[in-house]
Amino acid sequence: MEISSRPDELFAQLYPDVMQHGSLLDILNYLAQEGGFSLRCDESIFQGRSAVVRGKHGKSQIYLGAKERVFSFDFWQKGVQLAKGFTDSPQKMMLALHELLEKGTSPLALGQDFSFVKPDEKAASYYGGAALQVQEQWDRLQQWTQDEKEEDFIKRLASIVNLARQHPQLGQLFPFIGMGMLYFSRCTGYPFEVPCSRIGPIPDRDKCSAQRFVVASGTYGPQCERFEGTATEVLEFVAAQLPPACGPARQGTAENN
After folding, report:
1. Is 116 within a domain?
2. How many structural domains is the chain composed of?
3. Is the pLDDT of residue 222 over 70?
C-alpha cells in the first residue's frame, strides 16, 4: 500500500478501524462495552488522537502513532508510572488495560499474551511498599548526582543528597530533584506533597560557595525567607519546617492524603 504524505490521509490509512467508529474515544468505548469491561474512557487534551482510560486500579493515557500504526499506552497507579505498552491492536490493548486497571494485575505478573507491556524500572520497588520506594529513590539520586557525565549543577547536589539521606527525619521522606533543587515529599507519587522548602547549590562556582547551599521557596512547600549555609545548617533549617509526625513517606499522592 502506498502511504500518503498528507496527515489526514495517512491517519485514515493507518487507522481505518478508528475512522470507522468515528474517533479513538469511540472505538475504546465500543471495545470496552463489547468486552463487558467497566473501564471509563475519556477524551484527553489532544482530541481525536489520544484518550484516558480509568479503572479502580489506576489510569492509562493512550496515544496514536503519527507515522506508523501503533497504540501506545502507559499505566499509572497512585501517582507512579508502572508500565508502558505498544501494539498495533486496540483489542489487545484493551485486554491488557482490563488486566491492569480493572483486575489489578501487576505488570510484573502479566503472561506472554501481554509481552507488549513493559514494566517500568520502578515497578518492583512500588509493589515492595513505600519504604522500598524511598530507599530506591535515594539510591537513584545518589547515582545521578555522582555521575561524572552530569551537568555541574547536578553534581554539586551530591554532598547534600548524601547527608540528607542520613538525616533521621528527611531521610524518611521521598526525595526528588527539580530545576536543580532538592525536594522532600511525604508521598511517593505525583503530584507530590512537599512539607518543607527546597535546597540548592549557591549559583557561584568558587571553592567557598561549592560547600554552601541555599534554602528557597518554590512551587512546592511553604514560603520562607532565603537562607544560606553549610549542608548541615540548611538541612536542619528545612527539618525545622516539618509538621509533627511527618514521615515516613507513604504511597499515594498529594491528592489522596
Report:
1. yes
2. 2
3. no
